[in-house]
Amino acid sequence: MDLNKYSNSILPYIPFFYVIWSDDLLSASEIEVVKTAIKEDDSLNNEDKKQLGAWLDKSNPPQNEEIKQWQQLITNSGVTLIESEAFPLEAFARKVANFYCNSCSSNELLKQIELNLGIQPNHYNHLFNVEVIQQPFSDFYNGAEIDAILNKPFLKKINTFRTFLKQDTFNWNIETNKEKAREKVLSQVKLLAANGWGALAYPKAYGGEDNMECYASIFEHLMFIDGSLAIKFGVQFGLFGGSIHNLGSKRHHDQYLKATGETNLLGCFAMTETGHGSNVRGIKTTATYIHNEKALVIHTPGKNDNKEYIGNALDSKMASVFAQLIVNGKNRGVHAILVPLRNDKHEVLEGITVKDNGYKLGLNGVDNGKIWFNQVKVPVANLLDKYGRIDSDGNYESEIKNPNKRFFTMLGTLVGGRICVAKGALAGSKMALTVAIKHALQRRQFNDSLKVQEDLLLDYPTHQLRLIPKVATSYVYHVVLQKAMKEYAQNTSNDKRKIETQVAGLKACITWFATETIQECREACGGKGYLLENRIGDLKNDTDIFTTFEGDNTVLLQLAAKGVLSDFKSELNAGGFVSVLKLLRDRFSDKLATINPAYSNKTDKDHLYNPKFHLHAMDYRLRRLTDTAAMRIRGYIKKGVPSYQAFLKVQTHLLEVGKAYSEVLSIKWYYEFITDLPEGKYKNLLLQVGALHSLSIIRKDAVWYLEQGYLSSTKSKAIRQRVERLSTELRPHAHALVEGFGIPEHLVTAPIAN
Predict the structure, then answer these.
(1) In the predicted model, what is the mean pLDDT of residues 512-529?
(2) Is the separation of the CB atoms in 477 and 424 below 8 Å?
(3) What is the side-by-side strand order in the sheet with 307-310?
(4) From 3.40.50.150, 1.10.600.10, 2.60.40.740, 1.20.140.10, which CATH number describes the 416-739 domain?
(5) Could you tell me which residues come within 8 angstroms of residue 343 by beta carbon, excluding any fewer than 6 positions away?
(6) 564, 623 in Cβ contact below 8 A?
(7) Catalytic positions, please?
(8) Rounded alpha-carbon distances, angstroms, from residue 75 to 92, 93, 96, 130, 224
(9) How are beta strands 318-327 and 267-270 bridged, if at all?
(10) What is the pLDDT of residues 706-732, one digit of tens each?
(11) 277 pLDDT exceeds 90?
C-alpha cells in the first residue's frame, strides 16, 4: 500500500470518507457540511483540499480500488474503535492517523462533520476490520454532578432523605390487596412524620422548617417508592395541614398543626363533590351559622352533594370541609371548616356517613372515600378564618370585600398542592424513562447479518426519537417546577393570581406529558414493560388520575388562558389608544419579519439551536393566539352574544392559548436557569437538552407555524432533522441524563433496569 499518496493532514479524513462512501451517507446538504469543514480546516493545504473535494463528487466517486486502500490503511493501524467516546469516529480517525504520522491532534471540524451528519457507531462499526469496544454509554458526563446542578439549593437535605429511604419499610413490592396496601402506606406516612419529614413546610414553632420548596422535593421522591405513599403524604401534610396553615389563624395553628405534622391528628381535605367536580364555587355543602349556639351546622343538602374521592377519608379523625358559609341568611361564599369525623375509638360520629370508593385504576394504597354530613354541629371556632370570620355579634367580616377576590385568594393559597401534583407526575415520567433507557442500553435486537452481536435498542434512531426528547422535556419541567415552587413559597402577598395562572397551565401540560411519556416507555420496553415487577404499569395507573385531580386539565388550561387574556386586556386598558396602536404596529412588524424568506428559510445549526429562536417562535405563537382569541371574543360580544357564550365559542382556541402560554413560560424559565450556570461542559449539555425540547415543541406545532408563514417547508423539514440529530447526539449520554434525575439506586427496583 502506497501511503505516500496521502498527506498527514488527509489521513484523519480517510475513515470519514470510507464510512461516507461505504454507507452512501451523502445527500446534497451533507456534501455542503463536509465541504464547509474542509474549507475552514487550516491544517489542510490547497492540494489537500482539492483532493478531498474531488472525493465528494457524486458524479465521479472514488474508485473501488481507492476505497479498498482506505480499508487496508484502517485495518493495518490495529486501532480500537471505542463506541462510548464523545466523538467516536473523530477519536478513531485521529488514532488511525497517529499510527502513521504521530502528529494528529483533536480536530473540531471533523467533530462537526460527525455531529452534523449524525454518524453513529452502529452505522459503521461493521465496516472496520478492527476491535470494537461496545460500551453502551459514555462516561463523559457524571449523573451525580448533573443531579447536584439541578437540586443545588437543597441537595444536602435531599441526600439525607435519600439515605433515610434505604429502610426496608420503603422497599417496593407488588401488593394487589387494597387493605394491605393502605396499612403499609399509613405506617410509612407515620414513620416519615416521626422523623420530621411531613412537617417540613410548617413554621419552626410547629416542628417544621418553613421550607415548602424542600417539602415538594420530598414529595417527588416518594413517587419513586409508591404513588400511593406520595398522595397519602400530600393529603395529610400538604392538603389537610396546608389548609390549616394557610387558611387558619394562629389559634388553629397552635391547636392542630403540630399534631398534624406528627400524624397524631390524621385529616382529610373535603373539597370536591360528586355533582360539582372542578366547580368549587358551585359546591352545595352548607355551613350555616347559629348565633345563639356559636356553632356552624354542616349539611349535605342533596343526593349528589356529598364529598367525593376524598383521600385519607377512612383513616381521618378530622376533615377540612369546604362549604358555602351562610351567616344571617346570606351566603358569604366558600370557606373551610374543621369538622371532626371520628372519636378516639375511630368510630364515625353521629350525622356523618363515610363510604369507601373501593378499588381504583391505581393508588389503591390511598383510602379514598365519599362523605355525607347530616346537620353536623361544630363550634364556630372551627371556621378557618384567615380571610373571613364571624365576630362576637354574629356578623361576617373580611378584609377582602370583593367575594370573587376573596374566593380566589383562598384557593390561591393552595396552589402548592397543584405544583406537587405536577412534580409527582414528572417523577413518574423520570422513573419510567430511567427504566426504559437502562433497559434499552442492555437489550439487543436484530442485526444486519454481518455481525454476530445484535444492536442495542437505544442504537436505533427510532428508539432514540421516542425516548430522548422526553428525557430532555423532563429536564426542562424539573427546572420549571423548582422555579414555580420558589415563586409560590416566596410570594408573601395575598394576591397569588399570577402564580395561580402559571401553575394551572404547567400542571395541565406536565401531567399530560407524564401520561404520554409513561405509555411510550411501556411500549419501548415491549412485553417486559407490561410486567408489574418492572414498575411502569403501576406508574401508568397511579399517575393517570393526576390529569384530573387538583384541577381537571382542560379546565386548568382555560383558567391559564383567561389569566393571559386578563393581562392582555389590562395592558390595553392601561395604554388606551396608544397601546392599541403599539399592538397593531408590533403585530404588523412581527408578521413582516417572520414571512421574510431570509428568516423563514434559515436552517443553519447555529440558528436552529439558538435559544433566541426558540423563545421567539414560541412567544410569537402565544401572542398570535392570544390576539386572535381576544378579537374573536370581542367580535361575538359586539354581536350581542353573552360573554360566557362567547368564551364557549372559542373554548378550543383558549386551550391552545393556555398550552402556548405554558410552553413559553417553561422555556423562558429554563433558559434563565442555564444562563446563571458557569461555563463548561454541563452548561453545554443542558443547552443541548433545551434545544431538543424546544425544537420538539416547535415541530409538534409545525402545521400552525406553516399556516402562519413563520416557517417554510424547508425550515420545518430542517427542524425535524435536527430533532433526530440531537437525539442521536445525546444518545451516548442518555445513561448520565437519567442518572441525573437523582433517583436513588436502591429505588430503581425494576429487574430490566438492573
Answers:
(1) 97
(2) no
(3) 307-310, 369-373, 352-356
(4) 1.20.140.10
(5) 349
(6) no
(7) 550
(8) 12, 12, 9, 6, 48
(9) parallel
(10) 999 999 999 999 999 999 999 999 999
(11) no
Q: Which of 292, 201, 140, 137 is nearest to 680 (CA)?
A: 140
What is the β-pairing status of strands 318-327 and 307-310? unpaired
How far is CA 80 from each of CA 14, 89, 93, 103, rounded to the nearest angstrom?
A: 16, 11, 10, 18
Beta strands in 487-623 (DSSP E): none
More confident residue, 262 or 21: 262
Interval 29-63: pLDDT, tens:
778 889 999 999 998 999 999 999 999 888 888 89
**In the structure grid, which three cell numbers stand for residue 547, read together?**
390529569
- One CATH from 2.40.110.10, 3.40.47.10, 1.20.1630.10, 3.30.360.10 for 269-408: 2.40.110.10
Q: What is the spatial distance between Cα 501 and Cα 586, in angstroms, rounded to a whole number? A: 25
pLDDT-based confidence at residue 450 (cuts at 50, 70, 90): very low
Per-residue pLDDT band at 485 (split at 50, 70, 90):
very high
Pairing of strands 286-290, 295-299: antiparallel
In contact, 496 and 415? CB cutoff 8 Å:
yes
Element (H, E) at 485: helix 461-489
Residue 581's pLDDT band, with cuts at 50, 70 and 90, is: very low
Phi, psi of 372 (to 5 degrees): -115, 145
- Average pLDDT of the residues in 316-342: 97
What is the b/e burial string over 471-501, where b = at least 16 CB atoms within 10 angstroms of the residue's CB?
bbbbbbbbbbbbbbbebbbeeeebebeebbb
Residue 156, number of CB atoms within 10 A of its CB = 10
Residue 213 has pLDDT above 90, yes or no: yes
Q: Break the chain into its structural domains and give their ranges.
A: 3-133, 146-261, 269-408, 416-739
Rounded to the nearest 5°, which phi and psi values hold at 342?
A: -140, 160
Is residue 137 within 8 A of residue 734, CB to CB? The reply is yes
Between CA 740 and CA 136, with CA 752 as vertex, the angle to 5 degrees is: 60
Cα–Cα distances (Å) from 169 to 37, 173, 183, 560, 739, in that order, read: 58, 10, 12, 40, 24
Give pTM, 2 decimals.
Answer: 0.85
Confidence tier at 634 by pLDDT (50, 70, 90): confident
Q: What is the pLDDT of residue 599?
A: 82
Whether the predicted pLDDT of 681 surpasses 90? yes
CATH fold group of domain 146-261: Butyryl-Coa Dehydrogenase, subunit A; domain 1 (1.10.540)
In the predicted model, is pLDDT for residue 136 greater than 70?
yes
Rounded CA separation 249/383 (Å)? 10
* pLDDT score recorded for residue 718: 94
- Helix (H) or strand (E) holding 571, with range, is helix 553-595
